[in-house]
Design brief:
With 619 residues, this protein is of the alpha+beta class. Helix content is 33%, strand content 27%. The chain has 18 helices and 31 strands. The strands form 8 sheets. It has a 6-stranded mixed sheet, with helices on both faces. Helix 4 links the parallel strand 4 and strand 5. Bound molecules: guanosine-5'-triphosphate and magnesium ion. Magnesium ion binds next to helix 1.
């Protein structure tokens, strides 16, 4: 469990952490010199009945709110610190707003420096604070007066924190591992070490992780929790992870470690976004914003349907970021404005992997099934990558199978399609084929490869549908050509006349027939048509293409093959000149004919000549 401090500068956060844990988290020389917190501080806190809680101490200075956000992200409990002598101040409110935006639901308020004020003043400040937290997540939080100087109230505070901690729900450990990195440094002999709060999942030593935004694959060489080496680390714990062979320059605050192959960096997110009530102006796509998600911070623009968001307004929007971020559905984030600098709002990611032109969309937080349905319909024929769904939907991998089953979606080769897609693909195949048959009535069917390019779905999908339709008898797939089962190639009257003429011509030409071009010229018919008719006659078995574009009558070929094989002895090996004796063809016709015989398996050619292969004669 993680506890984070919050509160205005100098209100006593770091002093109180030291009073609770004995650890001074202000370690930087500059922090000592200026007497303020600049970077995040970390300390272990023992709470009775809870165990060790990781404390993240944040700076209160208005210039370091971005650091505060990085520290507050992923905490379970907030310790809001308000100095009794000053009361509620600007960063008290801003930090409170950030806690609310980040979805922190529990905590305790400490009225520090109570030694500096009298009881009357203290009760006034207490009322002030109560009204400041009234409509937020700390509305019911106990308010405990403390002094880090006298020790007053510190034990009462510890007990209040333990009570609040007991009500915090556990985090999912049977989930994808993710840890936004908040620090990176090198330790001599160990190498690069990164620290952070584990958001989800479990990590074992020697695991392999992905590091984003670099995308590097990294190996976990050592694991520590609260300064002790451990074998595994779970969601909700502070972790120090030693990474094998990673340059320090590759990691830093803002990077994130994840396990599994569901994670993708993305530049368009969809989210439910809320603007704070006290923002000065509406926020639209022209306003430069900073998106704080996990420990990362990137430039962002907000595009909501219906224009700019007004102060206090809550609407679905798209967030377009300058640099890729790794987000998951359900992630909370904070949006800050650049001028004036300040927190303007935040929200919940509803789609971390939004298509470039997707419309903003309101997710129903309680219905993952609805989200899946929406994504499926939106993806239409391109489908969804099943591998990324645990991230896109924000669910554990083990919840996916039943969700997909319930959706009725169609799962082909790692992609998921809306149930209606199958009918759509069937319809497209049918109409594409019937158009093809109309345009090419003599063709046996459309080449499958061509069909794939025309239907506009993944090859695996079209192949699956063709396979189904072939089994169902609706399509015929023959030699790579697909046709509707009801289609048969047919000749028009004119083509029938042409076919008869053509056959007569080829019969007369015997063993030395003309090419298709020559045939077309002597018949005075279009070459394309002659080619189609000869192809059809070849499919029907009347003609044989001994070489490309040169057709023989089947009977002529049979006779030539018979002569050849009868001439060759079983053991003999023959050169072309000898074979020519058997069939009596001129050289121009002989070589293509012999090659035809090789292809058809009548003869076998090697370096020294041809042998007879089969004893059976041509049919
Ligand atoms: N009298 C009195 N002084 C306190 C108490 N707590 C803190 N201080 C003093 O207040 C000053 C600021 O305390 P810090 O603990 O550094 O305050 P902080 O909230 O951590 O400040 P930032 O991290 O810079 O926002 C220091 O000089 C502390 O000694 C307290 O309970 N009583
Ligand atoms: Mg401090």
């Amino acid at each position: 469990m993680i506890l984070g401090t919050a509160g205005h500068i100098d209100h006593g956060k770091t002093s109180l952490v030291r009073a609770l844990t004995g650890v001074d988290t202000d370690r930087l020389p500059e922090e000592k010199r200026r007497g303020i917190t600049i970077d995040l501080g970390f300390a272990p806190l023992e709470l009775e009945g809870i165990g060790t809680v990781g404390v993240v101490d944040v700076p209160g200075h208005e210039a370091f709110v971005r650091t505060m956000v990085a520290g507050a992200t992923g905490i379970d409990l907030a310790l809001l610190v308000v100095a009794a002598d000053e009361g509620v101040m600007p960063q008290t409110r801003e930090h409170l707003a950030i806690l609310r935006l980040l979805g922190v639901r529990a905590g305790v308020v400490a009225l520090t420096k109570s030694d500096l004020v009298d009881d009357e003043w203290l009760s006034l400040v207490r009322e002030d604070v109560a009204s400041a937290v009234a409509d937020g997540p700390l509305a019911d939080a106990p308010i405990v007066a403390v002094s880090s100087v006298t020790g007053r109230g510190v034990e009462e505070l510890r007990a209040a924190l333990a009570a609040a901690a007991r009500r915090v729900p556990g985090r999912a450990t049977a989930d994808l591992f993710r840890m936004p990195i908040d620090r990176a440094f090198t330790i001599r002999g160990t190498g690069t070490v990164v620290t952070g709060t584990v958001w989800s999942g479990t990590l074992r030593r020697d695991s392999t992780l992905r590091l984003f935004p670099s995308g590097d694959t990294v190996r976990v060489r050592g694991l520590q929790a609260h300064g002790h080496a451990v074998e595994r680390i779970h969601a909700g714990e502070r972790a120090a992870i030693a990474l094998a062979a990673v340059e320090l320059s590759r990691v830093g605050r803002g990077a994130v470690l994840v396990a599994g192959d569901a994670w993708r960096p993305s530049t368009v997110l969809r989210a439910d976004v809320a603007l704070l009530d006290d923002v000065a102006r509406p926020v639209g796509p022209r306003n430069q914003l900073r998106l704080h998600l996990g420990t990362s911070e990137v430039g962002a623009r907000l595009v909501a349907t219906g224009g700019a968001l007004a102060p206090g307004e809550h609407r679905p929007a798209r967030i377009i970021v300058d640099e890729p971020v790794v987000a998951r559905s359900g992630d909370r984030f904070v949006l800050r404005g650049c001028s004036p600098l300040g927190t303007v709002g935040g929200g919940v990611v509803t789609d971390p992997l939004a298509p470039q032109r997707a419309r903003a969309w309101a997710a129903r937080a309680d219905s993952v099934a609805e989200a899946l349905d929406h994504f499926l319909r939106e993806a239409a024929l391109s489908g969804l990558d099943v591998a990324e769904l645990p991230v896109r939907l924000g669910i554990a991998e083990n919840e996916l199978a039943s969700l997909i089953a319930a959706s009725g979606a169609w799962h082909v080769d790692g992609r998921l399609y809306a149930p209606s897609t199958r009918d759509q693909v069937v319809e497209r195949i049918r109409s594409t084929l019937s158009e093809y048959h109309g345009a090419h009535p003599l063709d046996p069917g459309a080449p499958r490869q061509w069909l794939r390019t025309r239907v506009g779905v993944a090859d695996s999908v079209i192949d699956a549908v063709i396979g189904e339709l072939v089994s169902a008898g609706a399509l015929v797939l023959e030699q790579g050509d697909v046709r509707l089962a009801e289609f048969t190639a047919h000749l028009s009257d004119r083509q029938r006349a042409l076919a008869a003429e053509l056959v007569a011509h080829l019969t007369a030409a015997g063993a030395e027939p003309p090419t298709v071009e020559e045939l077309a010229a002597s018949l005075g018919a279009p070459q394309a048509e002659v080619a189609s008719v000869t192809r059809l006659l070849a499919r029907q078995g009347d003609l044989v293409a001994v070489e490309a574009n040169r057709y023989f009558r089947q009977s002529t070929v049979t006779q030539l093959v018979t002569q050849l094989l009868e001439g060759m002895s079983v053991q003999g090996e023959y050169g072309p000149a000898e074979l020519r004796e058997f069939v009596g063809l001129s050289r121009k016709f002989l070589i293509p004919f012999l090659e035809y015989c090789d292809r058809e398996g009548y003869t076998l050619r090697n370096d020294t000549g041809r042998r007879r292969r089969g004893t059976e004669l041509a049919k």
